From TrEMBL:
<dbReference type="InterPro" id="IPR029044">
    <property type="entry name" value="Nucleotide-diphossugar_trans"/>
</dbReference>
<dbReference type="GO" id="GO:0006493">
    <property type="term" value="P:protein O-linked glycosylation"/>
</dbReference>
<dbReference type="GO" id="GO:0008375">
    <property type="term" value="F:acetylglucosaminyltransferase activity"/>
</dbReference>
<dbReference type="Pfam" id="PF04488">
    <property type="entry name" value="Gly_transf_sug"/>
</dbReference>
<protein>
    <recommendedName>
        <fullName>Alpha 1,4-glycosyltransferase domain-containing protein</fullName>
    </recommendedName>
</protein>
<dbReference type="InterPro" id="IPR007577">
    <property type="entry name" value="GlycoTrfase_DXD_sugar-bd_CS"/>
</dbReference>
<dbReference type="InterPro" id="IPR051981">
    <property type="entry name" value="Glycosyltransf_32"/>
</dbReference>
<dbReference type="Pfam" id="PF04572">
    <property type="entry name" value="Gb3_synth"/>
</dbReference>
<feature type="domain" description="Alpha 1,4-glycosyltransferase">
    <location>
        <begin position="198"/>
        <end position="322"/>
    </location>
</feature>
<keyword id="KW-0472">Membrane</keyword>
<keyword id="KW-0328">Glycosyltransferase</keyword>
<dbReference type="InterPro" id="IPR007652">
    <property type="entry name" value="A1-4-GlycosylTfrase_dom"/>
</dbReference>
<keyword id="KW-0333">Golgi apparatus</keyword>
<dbReference type="GO" id="GO:0000139">
    <property type="term" value="C:Golgi membrane"/>
</dbReference>
<comment type="similarity">
    <text>Belongs to the glycosyltransferase 32 family.</text>
</comment>
<keyword id="KW-0808">Transferase</keyword>
Length: 341
């Protein structure tokens, strides 16, 4: 009897929480005084809806480049009703984060209503997935591409567990993706792992995690990344070349045309840093992958340069544009990062 009463009270409390939660996404009902990055419970509550947009930073860095800031801000702008998460290895739960003192980008982002910064705790992320035993056995300091490989693993586990959309930190969102379950084509018959989205517990991602561990090869860059996605995609889908701009349907997910995220191919990445006579409308695209890993020469986004990328920042991440870009005399380069391949 007492237990029933307790149960009833608990249900009422949870309902009340859920109700409040609708109105105050940012403040966690159960932990009202904790900033979101301090409470793992806060994270679980946010993820309950399965509709989050997630970005990962697997290095220890807490300084964010303007490009990372733009990626996160643009997603927050395109998905105002959905939580946008930035999980960072460099934050930890015991840390009292003073966003203002660590990085201007962090304070800019944490001031946006639907942006949430959390520590990336891989061990608990991999729990209950095929990646857990792999992770606990690996000596990460002996791994050549650890930042990339751990990022590849984390995004699979996260989207499998919680659902939502994963994006690299060099992807600028321009309009909502109208699909719940999708992989993105980089070219015909080849999947990227820089953007993908699924509802929770989709078996394709489970299969990816199993294959990740079974065929683990740490010395080949991308083997656990785009190549893994492509291997598994071929199991699920009868692939043919894309003809006009239309997506492929594979069972219960879509394989989205390269125009959706890669309207400018990697060979042409410098086009983003050029001024165009007539800028492309990108009206067949949902987001733009800026190919930051190609940018070894450290091209920067400069205010007043009238380059395509400057205009994209101005339109899609106005706060980053205003606060983080330097004028022509300085230069702020997009840093290299595993999250932005
Ligand atoms: C949190 O980060 C600090 C500074 O990087 C480190 O000294 C500390 O051990 C970390 N704590 C945990 C629980 O990881
Ligand atoms: C950061 O903010 C806190 C509280 O608002 C303030 O006390 C502190 O001086 C600030 N630090 C810097 C470096 O601006
Ligand atoms: C992990 O790898 C590093 C670098 O190769 C090596 O120095 C270290 O001894 C290894 N640790 C273990 C526990 O094997
Ligand atoms: C998609 O299809 C697979 C295989 O038929 C099935 O196991 C899975 O539950 C489906 N997922 C969703 C989200 O519909
Ligand atoms: C996209 O833009 C092009 C050129 O600006 C235009 O011809 C085309 O009709 C547009 N497509 C859609 C779907 O709006």
């Amino acid at each position: 009897m007492l237990m029933k009463l307790q149960l009833a009270l608990l249900v009422i409390l949870l309902l009340a929480c859920g109700f409040l939660y609708q109105f105050t996404l940012k403040s966690s009902c159960l932990f009202p005084h904790l900033p979101p990055y301090k409470s793992q419970q806060g994270l679980e509550a946010l993820l309950g809806h399965g509709r989050s947009i997630v970005f990962l930073e697997t290095s220890e860095r807490t300084e964010l480049s303007p490009l990372v800031s733009c990626a996160v801000e643009s997603a927050a702008k395109v998905y105002p009703e959905q939580p946008v998460l930035l999980l960072m290895k460099g934050l930890n739960s015991s840390m009292q984060l003073p966003p203002n003192s660590t990085s201007p980008a962090l304070s800019l982002l944490s001031a946006i209503d639907n942006v949430f910064l959390f520590p990336l705790d891989m061990k608990s992320l991999f729990e209950d997935t095929p990646l857990f035993s792999w992770y606990t056995q690996i000596n990460s300091s002996a791994e050549r591409y650890w930042l990339h490989v751990s990022s590849d693993a984390s995004r699979l586990a996260f989207i499998w567990k919680y659902g939502g959309v994963y994006m690299d930190t060099d992807v600028i969102s321009i309009r909502p993706i109208p699909e719940d379950n999708f992989l993105a084509a980089q070219t015909s018959q080849f999947s990227s792992n820089g953007v993908f989205g699924f509802l929770p517990h989709h078996p394709l991602l489970w299969q990816c995690m199993e294959n990740f561990v079974e065929n683990y090869n740490p010395d080949i860059w991308g083997h656990q990344g785009p190549e893994l996605m492509t291997r598994i995609l071929r199991v699920w889908c009868k692939l043919r070349d894309f003809q006009e701009v239309s997506d492929l349907k594979c069972l219960n997910f879509s394989f989205l045309h390269p125009q959706r995220f890669y309207p400018i191919s990697f060979l042409e990445w410098r086009r983003y840093y050029e001024a165009w006579d007539t800028e492309p409308s990108f009206n067949d695209s949902y987001a733009l992958h800026l190919w930051n890993h190609m940018n070894q020469e450290g091209r920067a986004v400069v205010r007043g340069s009238n380059t395509l990328v400057e205009n994209l920042y101005h339109k899609h991440c106005p706060k980053t544009y205003r606060d983080l870009l330097q004028g022509p005399e300085g230069s702020v380069t997009g840093e290299q990062g595993p999250g932005n391949k």
